[in-house]
Amino acid sequence: MPDRVVLAYSGGLDTSVAIPYLAEKMHAEVIAVALDLGQGGEDMEDIRERALDCGAAESVVVDAREEFAAEFCVPALRANALYMDRYPLVSSLSRPLIVKHLVDAARRLGGTIVAHGCTGKGNDQVRFEAGLAALAPELRVVAPARDFAWTRDKAIEYAEARGLPIETSKKNPFSIDQNLWGRAIETGFLEDIWNGPSEDVYAYTADPATPREPDEVVITFDEGVPVAVDGRPLTPYQVVDELNRRAGAQGVGRIDLVEDRLVGIKSREVYEAPGAMALIAAHMELENVTVERDLARHKRGVDQRWAELVYDGLWFSPLRRALDAFIAEAQRRVSGDIRMTLHGGRAVVTGRRSGDSLYDHSLATYDTGDAFDQSQAKGFVELFSLPAKIAAARDAKKD
Length: 399
Hints:
One of its GO terms (molecular function) is ATP binding. By secondary structure, this protein is of the alpha/beta class. The protein contains 13 helices and 14 strands.
């Protein structure tokens, strides 16, 4: 009986080519597993059929949109997760969920091997395989593009020679990964970091320079979780989906970044994440209103480490789970409303309100009604400055 290879299938060039290649190379049956992560575009039934047309023995499609939003995007939002302070973990977040469903499919359908379409230069190989090592170390892993030295040109030639039903060609050389949280574009002329991205690179965002009326939106959070837009209760998936449309229509969320990859090289990546960037901006501002200063300072370091762990493929690590416990405690009072104006490629906070606010108007005001006792400030400043004053006096003696 032939081995059964469970393939993480996207419907694109690399994984479509992998189906007949693995079948020929390993004399195996290939089971294609595709996830609907809110990426939009193609109908998932078309992707399922494409896998079969490419030679898959079975083709499975999983609707994981709500699961992805609630269990992966929301934790990233509560952690204000931005790798290198800019990248909202578009691809990084989806990989552990894909791994989870690959393992489920392998156990249900008798798979003994798992395959992915990652190259040896990218981060995703680590994310897939570190996740598989944590969840199902008994499964063997194969990566055709990496293990058999596939180049993109070879993959295109292979697909054309066999008449595979794939749109990617030498005229459209971009490698694109997209989901609810955003869209990642690389390769092609973008590999020359002096080249600016052309407008046809983008799909989730409109040109921010085009004149249009601004869009005002109010986002409601409950313990750091977005629960409503403009007063309408929504699931996390619905919140992100709506903000992708509205912020995307205003050109919000375009990112052009030379990024430090886990494997040690720098890579030019273009991202568009309108909903994610608008939500992170809103969430960070609500934290400014509701989180005590020392907790907020410490959380910024936790947020950075959380983003690095997820970027590096360590979603299933004990440290990520422990950091989640800290973040959950820090979010207990992060509830309220944030008003934003979406316009000209920017998501600008214009209003905040919360029943858990630490902002006290009577202490903050400079007008009549000021409750802050300024007479106490002089002694505070003297004591606060004392260590620096003593050190300066010592250094003056030495000099």
